[in-house]
Amino acid sequence: MSLLNSLLEYNRGFVERKEYEALKTDKFPDKNLAVLACMDARLVELLPKAMGLKNGDAKLIKNAGALVTHQWGSVMRSLVVAVYALRAEEICVVAHRDCGMNAIDPHAILEAARERGISEETIVTLRSAGIDLDNWLKGFANVEESVRHTVSMIRQHPLIPRDIPVHGLVIDPGTGSLDLVVDGYPGLDEAP
Hints:
By secondary structure, the protein is α/β, with parallel strands linked by helices. 37% of the residues lie in helices and 16% in strands.
């Protein structure tokens, strides 16, 4: 059985058993919180449990490395929507130790793409179109500094209100222990 068929088969039983009823909530986060976290599979259940979050408590946005790399990208759009349309009043950026984005090698990623059938012509065309693939695929060397940078990008965004605290944390994917990197409360009234 394929993975997709297995997921769909499980879903049919989930719906038939009405397991969704215990998870019912609305679109507004009960804790008025938006969380930007890494997509690492170890955090799927660990992160919400380590933060004491249950279904409906927060808007959870995930990407590789819990990074904001562009002021006008989809992550920032999601955060702006969370603030203005979904009542988020605080934002937490949560990266993690032992992250795959830590010192990721863009050249290795592109080589793997070539091995999977992406042509050199495609890569050259993207570069010729002005896409800096090496920078786009680059990770980070220090997780705490990456969190500080992302928090700063969010705080400095012209559409994020000055009264929204933006916190930065790093979670241990083995234990769930959270380390505070940026406390978003001090200086809320100050311009970034």
